[in-house]
Amino acid sequence: MHTSNQLIERQAFRQLRSKVRHVIQPGTVCNVVENEINSAITQALNAQLEAERDEALGREPYRRGGKTARNGYKPLRVAGLFSGLTLERPVVRKGSIRLPLVDALRNAGRHLCNVLAARFWLRGASTRAVAEEMREATGARMSASTVTKLTNALEPTLRAWEKRPIPKGLHYLLLDALYLPVRRPGFTKRQALLVAIGVDPDGRRHVLGIFLGDRESKDSWEAFIKELLARGLDADALHMVVSDEHKGIEAAATSCLGIAHQLCVVHKLRNLRARIVKRDWKAFLADFHEVFWAVDREAAIQALGTLQGRWEKRYPGAVESAKHRFENFARFYDEPQKFWTLLRSTNLIERFNLELRRRLNPAGTMHSELEVSKIAWSVSQAQEVRWAKRRWKSQPRIRTQEAVVV
Predict the structure, then answer these.
(1) Exposure of 41 by Cβ count < 10 A (0-12 exposed, 13-18 middle, 19+ buried)?
(2) In DSSP terms, which residues pair with 320 in a beta bridge?
(3) pTM for the structure as a whole
(4) 283 in helix, strand or coil?
(5) Which of 254, 247, 110, 102 minimizes the C-alpha distance to 177?
């Protein structure tokens, strides 16, 4: 038989063990630790505020004298720190006292909220979404217009980035554009955002700049290329321009640079896809692959003859399209083989444009050129960091269908 004390002790131990097990459940323990840390920080800060009050009054608690007396506390919420701390701010009966810790906490919280808001917007959230999430998470008083003002502080950095010198010795220039809606006084118009990427002999890739033009015309591209030349683009060092088959790009590159122009093979392939029935596409693709993924130019010319002999009767239009301007699509064979994968298509710059679109789409209509520049600068900085971690490496020739898919 157990005594009453033993039974009580055993029951208490069971209850204690049950509570401990509940506390250390996944997720619960994190909340306990967070609450304890916040509680400890709150107590320490409240103690410091009381010490600053006593120092400002010049006397210890419960001592008489002075011009005013203690008058309890008021809640003080500090946004941006630890999901918003609620402290007890000491107050006095007459006038006010300066508490340096309050100023320091408010400045730190405001700075943290401002930095996070700007970074969230640059990463892809809309101004309204950023403001709502910051209010919810930190208690900061923030609106969509506040987020815009915070990011506008980047303007000096953006202007310096737009005017920075072009790296020396670039061998390849890739050009492409995407369209986005831009708000103008009284109307909204879709405008072309022209993009240029350069590649040096070591395979390092650089975003050279952007240019917001009314449309993707020869005049727009000429203005953009002339701007790049003014910033130090060395036309004599360039070996080749790479783009899709756009007349405006070709005409501007010829007039401003006068160098070889490589057209995108993948764009040609996409055009051919619409001309071939599904049952013949795999075989036709294999023959097309032998042309532009050959070991050298001579092998490519032979493969083009094979493709013509095999498919001309069945698909004369497709064969003619495959042969059209062959030299412009095969200029990459004149360059070092390690760059063939990069030069035969515009995949590199289209991949960068995809990142731009991912960031531009949540923002909707652009309200100004400054807004476009902020987004382009943010995406460019992040992309160049990724490129810096891995230089371009030559890739082996893979005889598969996937080798030509964008």
Answers:
(1) middle
(2) none
(3) 0.71
(4) helix
(5) 247
- Classified as helix, coil or strand, 183 is strand
Crossing angle between the packed helical segments 316-323 and 278-292, to the nearest 10 degrees:
20
pLDDT band at 401 (very low <50, low <70, confident <90, very high): very low
Tell me the pLDDT tens digit for each residue of 240-274: 999 999 999 999 999 999 999 999 999 999 999 88
Tell me the helix, strand and coil percentages in the chain, rounded to 5. 55, 15, 30
Contact 265, 292 (CB under 8 A): yes
Alpha helix positions (H), 202-330 = 218-230, 247-256, 265-273, 278-292, 297-311, 316-323, 326-329
Closest CA to 235 of 313, 174, 173, 290: 173
- Pair of tokens at residue 18: 């049950």
Contacts of the segment 336-342: beta carbons below 8 A, 24+ positions apart: 337/394, 338/203, 338/392, 338/393, 338/394, 339/172, 339/199, 339/203, 339/392, 339/394, 341/394, 341/395, 342/172, 342/199, 342/203, 342/392
State the Cα–Cα distance between residues 169 and 167, nearest whole angstrom: 7
* Residue 25 one-letter amino acid: Q
pLDDT digits (tens, 9 = 90+) for 56-90: 777 767 666 666 677 677 777 766 555 556 777 77
Q: What is the CA radius of gyration of the chain?
A: 33
Residue with tokens 């950095």: 157
Cα angle 104, 106, 109 (rounded to 5 degrees) comes to: 105
Q: Cα separation of 29 and 37, whole Å?
A: 12
CA angle 129, 132, 138 (to 5 degrees): 130
**Residue 400 to residue 289: CA distance in whole angstroms:** 8
- Lowest-confidence pick of 52-56, 162-166, 237-241: 52-56
Strand 187-199 and strand 172-184: pairing? Answer: antiparallel
Segment 57-65 long-range contacts (CB within 8 Å, at least 24 positions apart): 57/92, 57/97
Residue 395: Cβ within 10 Å count: 12
The per-residue DSSP string of 82-150 comes to TT-EEEEEEEESSS----HHHHHHHHHHHHHHHHHHHHHHHHT--HHHHHHHHHHHH-----HHHHHHH
